[in-house]
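Subject: for your reference before the review

Hello V.,

The reviewers asked for a structural picture of the protein, and I figured it would be easier to keep everything in one thread rather than splitting it across files. Below is the amino acid sequence we used in the manuscript, unchanged from the supplementary table.
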Amino acid sequence: MTNMKDLKTLPYKDREFFLQGNATCAGCGLDLSLRWALKALGPKTVIVSPASCLNVVTGVWPKGAPDFPMINMVFAGAASAATGVYHGLKARGIEDYTVVAYAGDGGTTDIGLQALSGAAERGTNIIYVCYDNEAYMNTGVQRSSSTPVGAITTTTYYGKVQQKKNLPGIMSMHNIPYVATASVGDPLDLYDKFKKAKDIKGFKYIHIYAPCPPGWRSPSEKSVEIAKMAIDNGMWILYEIENGFFRLTGKSKRLTDPKKRKPIEEYIKSQGRFRLVKKEQMEKLEQYRELMWNQVSKELLFQQMDEKSR
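And here is what came back from the structure prediction:
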């Protein structure tokens, strides 16, 4: 891994590939994640985006914000279209471009899941990215299967009842060479993971925590702070699985001890979407956090046992 620690050493630190004039909201996690991802991937990148915020914020004709080839695609077709782009370039002898599907959680955990699973099973040499703002933000803040318990949306007036779907966990079951979580709260960790994924052959999946101020009812200037809170309290775990090897990354490496995880109350209070959270919903959020960390503990234990047997 690159392990980039200093912003001044970034190869494209002075270049933006997602330009000024785009229509993202102030504090948009999508904007932040895409800018960092492209600094890692470089100019020879093609992005396929299904129906999402990314489709509508790229600029008004005749001008456009993307300084890279970009294809808008139907909601369910990101992974399929990216597969076609990759093989089309390969057929023309162009193999030095990175093909990326960049989709929201609605287009990933719900509508696009079948195409995503198919591309992963085929082992297509692309990177699939889910920028997770935990609802269908572009179409009116409806709940998705990635919306957490207790969050208010336009279709869950009193807070969602079901737990958030663990899509990175599902993708790891496809036995693909690389699965990672990332966050705009730790941009250098995000940068390192894209840099690594670029050089790995086969299907790669990266799931990014990306706050949405309008949908989360949070101050736009607090997006990065909220993202950092989610890491510090263990609600969002940074990790990567490379060829079956699981490792924690960033601050999450220090949070295997539950006592080091901060309480989630401050995180909940920072977002208006949780304003109606009841005691039982808080307990469910705590249960979700513990469930995720229990799975991490099992992975780390299995890893240790595997290393000892070698």
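For the response letter, the relevant points are probably these. DSSP finds eleven helices and eight strands in the chain. Residues 8-309 form a domain with the Rossmann fold fold (CATH 3.40.50.970).

Happy to draft the paragraph if you're swamped.

O.
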